[in-house]
Amino acid sequence: MPSDSLPSVDALILDMTDALESDDVPLWEFVWRLNAMCPDAQTPDKIRLARRAVTQLLGQEYGLWRGEWPTGPVAPLTEREVQQLADDDVAWTDPESASVLVWLRATG
Q1: CA 68 to CA 100: how far, in whole Å?
Q2: Which residue has the higher pLDDT, 9 or 99?
Q3: Cα separation of 35 and 24, whole Å?
Q4: Across 44-84, where does the E strand assignment appear?
Q5: 90 CB-contact burial (10 Å; exposed 0-12 / middle 13-18 / buried 19+)
Q6: pLDDT for residue 69 is more than 80
Q7: How far is Cα 44 from Cα 77, in angstroms, rounded to an integer?
């Protein structure tokens, strides 16, 4: 794949499956993985693709949790935090600057 060509949403989900099966995954890991797969693609495009992948996973066996670094998830996101996440790209790219750290966690 060319370094600026993004994979399909299904390919990204498949690529993240091992990580998701073994541990909780912070949202920024999706974009960071895309940074490795297609370093020349535009960051907003990577974030859009990561959001689509996470949205699909939320319809399955996963939920969004807020957490702390490095200990990970501590509680499900509140409705306010979910709304904030919808408008906040920082949580997807820069955990050090994010107002809330968000993990994808298996619910089952």
Answers
A1: 9
A2: 9
A3: 20
A4: 62-68, 72-76
A5: middle
A6: no
A7: 23
Structure tokens belonging to residue 25: 């995954």
What gap in Å lies between CA 102 and CA 95, rounded to an integer? 9
Q: Is 29 helix (H, G, I), strand (E, B) or coil?
A: helix
pTM: 0.89
CA distance linking residue 77 with residue 102, whole number of Å: 8
Which residues have CB under 8 Å from 49's CB, separation 6+? Answer: 6, 7, 9, 12, 34
* Distance between CA atoms of residues 46 and 29, nearest Å: 11
